[in-house]
Amino acid sequence: MTTTWARRTGILVLIGAATAGLTACGGVVGATLTYNDVEKTKITEIRLTGGAGDVAITTGAVTETTIKRVIRNSSDPGDSYRLDGSVLLLDTSCGVDCSVSYEVEAPAGVAVRGDLRSGDVNLTGVGATDIKLTSGDVNVHEAAGPVLIRATSGDVRVLNAKDKVTVQSTSGDVNVLDAAGALDLRLTSGDINASLTVPASVKAQTTSGDVQVRVPQAAYKITNHTSSGDNEIQGLTSDPAAKNTLDLRASSGDVLLVATP
């Protein structure tokens, strides 16, 4: 496949514009460069990599992809993103004390994968999602495919997911609301708040924090446990023969399971 690199001039494929100002990044004063680019190739996957920088991806009924890059504390951004066939690769690294943030609009259902060190990730209307983030918040709205998030420090919010959601986090709150698929949520320190729109299996476990789960009225095999805290079930009884399982655990914190009409 042919790989196309972004041009340093700010003119890429169709349109590029750059503006410069003064800002502080990492305690050092430098330039802020803003580039607006358009790619005609229909993008099916976006891959993220790099150090510090925010990424926001929205989708719509479009075939082209628009890319806004904000590059802080660099007079020469170099190659910051590239195309590999139908895959768009976004790199938030650009040197010491420098960061690249992206705002992207892509075709609906585009897959998003990648590994970032620091920054917030906001995704809306994407497809399959696989994100690893060391420090920062992750927000995913209306994902059409499976969602996998591995986070070290930061909050995770997933809203209106249409498929399975898996979250593994060390520190921060996890909120997965109005999900239409199975949930596997594992957290070391922080609260878990989850809700389903259709019956499905839920595993929600935290070492230090509360677990609250709301599910539609249906048959479930239930396991709920806390070593230190309140343990309450409202509107449900365990059915050992049920297909869907609810496994809720907190080592230190309250566990609440509620059936919704």
| Helix-strand makeup class | mainly beta
> What's the N-to-C terminus distance?
52 Å
Mean pLDDT: 89
Please state how the strands of the largest beta sheet are arranged side by side: 2-3-6-9-5-11-13-15-17-19-21-25-23
Shape annotation:
elongated
By DSSP, the count of extended strands is: 25
Low-confidence segments: 1-29
**Which assembly state applies to the chains in this document?**
single chain
Give the DSSP E fraction (strand runs of 2 or more residues). over 45%
Radius of gyration: 21 Å
Major β-sheet annotation: 13 strands, mixed
User: Given the structure, what is the number of helices?
Assistant: 0
Instruction: Give the topology string: H per helix, E per strand.
Output: EEEEEEEEEEEEEEEEEEEEEEEEE
Number of domains: 2
The portion of residues assigned to helices is: under 10%
